[in-house]
Amino acid sequence: MAKGIPTREEDYAQWYIELVKQADLAENSDVRGCMVIKPYGYSIWEKMQQALDKMFKDTGHVNAYFPLFVPKSMFEAEEKNAEGFAKECAIVTHYRLKNDPDNKGKLIVDPNAKLEEELVVRPTSEAIIWNTYKKWIQSYRDLPILINQWANVVRWEMRTRLFLRTAEFLWQEGHTAHATKEEAIAETEQMLDVYAAFAEEFMALPVIKGRKSENERFPGALDTYCIEAMMQDGKALQAGTSHFLGQNFANAFDVKFTSKEGKLEYVWGTSWGVSTRLIGALIMAHSDDDGLILPPKLAPIHVVIVPIFKTEEEFNRISDKANEIAKALRKQGYSVKYDNRDTQKPGFKFAEWELKGVPVRIAIGPRDLENGTVEVARRDTKSKQVIALAELEQSIPALLDDIQQNIYNRALTFRTNNTTAVNTYEEFKKVLAEKGGFVSAHWDGTPETEQKIKEETKATIRCIPLDAKEEEGKCIYSGQPSKRRVLFAQAY
RNA sequence: CGGGGUGUAGCGCAGUCCGGUAGCGCACCUGGUUUGGGACCAGGGGGUCCCAGGUUCGAAUCCUGGUACCCCGACCA
Question: Which residues have C-beta within 8 Å of that of residue A478, sequence separation ≥ 6?
Answer without folding.
Answer: A444, A446, A449
